[in-house]
Amino acid sequence: MTVNQVTPSARGCEECLAIGSPWVHLRLCRACGHVGCCDQSPHRHATAHFHATRHPIIEGYDPPEGWGWCYVDEVVVELPDRTPQLGPIPRYV
């Protein structure tokens, strides 16, 4: 499985920024660069992005955690590199 280097789409969860909602952590789609919030956040936008697009791999983006997750196989995956942040990232929770 190839994991792409991408450009992050926003300096926070795209959807949460649009509606003024807080998030806990950010996840980055390694297929297209969409930045969404984690499943501990109120709206779970990263998982919603997977269901809408079927893009399988996310990266722990904020804080930069150095791991990936495959939604399809439900396993942690090794990433060849970390995506540079479009900082500073606003803190909400």
Can you offer a commentary on this structure?
- Helices cover 16% and strands 20% of the residues.
- With 93 residues, it is an alpha+beta fold.
- The chain has a domain at 14-78: Zinc/RING finger domain, C3HC4 (zinc finger) (Herpes Virus-1).
- It has a 5-stranded antiparallel β-sheet.
- The mean pLDDT is 91.
Give keywords:
Herpes Virus-1; about 90 residues; five-stranded antiparallel β-sheet; alpha+beta
Beta-strand content: 15-25%
User: So, CATH architecture of one domain?
Assistant: 2-Layer Sandwich
Structural class: alpha+beta
Q: Which stretches of 5+ consecutive residues score pLDDT under 50? A: none
Tally the beta strands.
Answer: 5
Termini Cα gap: 33 Å
Annotated CATH topology of one domain = Herpes Virus-1
Task: Trace the largest sheet across and list its strands.
Answer: 2-1-3-4-5
Count up the helices: 2
Rg, nearest Å: 12 Å
Helix content: 10-25%
Query: What is the makeup of the main sheet?
Result: 5 strands, antiparallel
Question: What oligomeric state do the depicted chains represent?
Answer: single chain
Q: Taking all residues together, what is the mean pLDDT?
A: 91
Backbone shape? globular
Protein name: UBP-type domain-containing protein
Pfam family, one: zf-UBP
GO molecular function: zinc ion binding
Organism: Sphingomonas leidyi
